[in-house]
Design goal:
The structure is a single chain. This protein is of the alpha/beta class. It has 13 helices and 10 strands. Strands 1, 2, 3, 4, 5, 6, 7, 8, 9 and 10 form a 10-stranded mixed beta sheet that branches. Helix 8 runs antiparallel to helix 9.
């Protein structure tokens, strides 16, 4: 059954060593009713040329060349021209298993789902880590889909392992002012609109972690700290009137602040130390909410108390823990 067209949007920027393999994995899908929109985001290498050559051989592929504006800008450009019944995304340096879209479309139709998504494999230095490959099928209504995204333990907040009905995407676009966690917020907006979603935990997307990619760059880019905090606040604002979801949004925000505080204990730059102090003040202001919340974990409560009452010792313990685990 291939009555439904899937528009696959591939954002590509300076990835000439990876783009052909990515496009081949899409071209070789068992589900053939595809429209593949490759958006060359102002590449200065041969990425655009290689994409053009690929499109000449397969008329399902079209290539758009634009000035560099970032991955959200590229994805939004793809959404603007997408004509499929479903919209999906693949990063131009990743690959997908050849039956991914067949599985996602079949599940979307079988379960009458606005969003269909799957697990993935993290590939780093040739080593594959399954996320998570349990084979479970989980049906999500609006509330469960949003809460699963906020929890993040099973459901991936990226957009590349999913297809979305074009109707629920509508005029929703990625926030081009965000560089980090923009996909989480986009997902939240769409899961909030979805009546029904289906997740099958089979690892069909291959997320390839490279040196020097945006996701592996260090904390020297302060937006890797400030953007996630901004996204948490945007989500808080979205659900401040929703008594069911708001406590979980607040839980996510508090946990994100604590996690970033932990990372900042490893940094020595003055501006990052100032930010660490600001995060500690946020935790202090929210300590009563942490104590009274029924959804905050015991681990989070313990970390909060450590940060507020034995800060120097807490920082020392975290540094020792980090060095032992990663060095």
């Amino acid at each position: 059954m291939e009555d439904y067209k899937v528009s696959v949007i591939v954002a590509a920027y300076n990835i000439q060593d990876y783009i052909v393999k990515c496009l081949e994995s899409i071209a070789n899908q068992t589900y053939k009713n595809l429209e593949v929109i490759v958006v060359d985001d102002g590449s200065s290498d041969n990425t655009g040329k290689l994409a053009d050559e690929f499109a000449e051989k397969d008329n399902r592929f079209i290539v758009i060349h634009k000035e560099n504006g970032g991955v959200s800008s590229a994805r939004n450009k793809g959404i603007d021209v997408a004509s499929g019944d479903f919209i999906g995304f693949v990063d131009g340096d990743d690959t997908i298993e050849n039956d991914m879209y067949e599985m996602l479309v079949n599940n979307a139709i079988k379960y009458d789902a606005d969003i269909s998504h799957c697990g993935y494999k993290l590939i780093e230095n040739g080593k594959e880590i399954l996320m998570y490959g349990t084979g479970k099928i989980i049906i999500q209504n609006r509330k469960k889909g949003v809460l699963d995204l906020m929890d993040g333990t099973l459901i991936e907040p990226g957009i590349w392992n999913k297809i979305f009905r074009k109707e629920i995407v509508g005029d929703t676009r990625l926030d081009e002012n965000l560089k980090i966690n923009e996909d989480l917020y986009f997902n939240i907006l769409l899961f909030d609109k979805a009546s029904n979603s289906v997740f099958e935990d089979k690892t069909k997307y291959n997320y390839i972690k490279r040196e020097n990619s945006a996701t592996t760059s260090s904390l020297n880019n302060i937006r890797r700290i400030t953007d996630p905090l901004k996204v948490c606040q945007m989500i808080i604002n979205l659900y401040k009137q929703d008594t069911e979801i708001y406590p979980y949004a607040k839980k996510m925000q508090i946990e994100r602040n604590i996690n970033i505080y932990n990372l900042l204990t490893l940094e020595k730059k003055i501006e990052l130390k100032r930010l660490k102090k600001q995060i500690r003040e946020y935790i202090k202001l929210n300590k009563n909410q942490v104590r009274s919340s029924s959804v905050i974990t015991k681990k989070t409560r313990l970390m909060m108390h450590g940060i507020l009452y034995i800060g120097f010792i807490y920082d020392l313990i975290y540094r020792l823990y980090f060095n032992k685990k990663y060095n």
